[in-house]
Design a protein that fits this description.
4 helices, mainly alpha
Length: about 100
């Protein structure tokens, strides 16, 4: 039973990296052939919203990973603000 959690975490980590289009999985666009797609088509507000959405997705996935695998909501002190701060600090380490 103890080998199941690390293997699930590795599969989760690979899926998360693929979902957020990070380094080994960002070859879908073929950057040498494109002129960077939405960077050319959208102006400042649309471009900013797209980039903010990408980084919010990364932060959200980091928080979900912290809660599922690292025990981000477990705390000896039952103060909700401390639990939230602890979860966000651990999630920031995963970014």
């Amino acid at each position: 039973m103890s080998f199941i959690i690390p293997s699930i975490f590795i599969i989760w980590l690979i899926a998360v990296i693929a979902e957020t289009n990070r380094t080994p999985f960002d070859l879908v666009e073929g950057e040498s052939e494109l002129v960077s797609g939405f960077n050319v088509e959208y102006r400042s507000v649309g471009f900013t919203l797209i980039f903010i959405a990408e980084y919010v997705r990364i932060l959200l996935i980091s928080v979900i990973t912290t809660i599922l695998f690292i025990g981000g909501t477990f705390s000896i002190i039952n103060n909700s603000i401390i639990i939230i701060i602890k979860t966000l600090l651990i999630a920031a380490l995963l970014i």
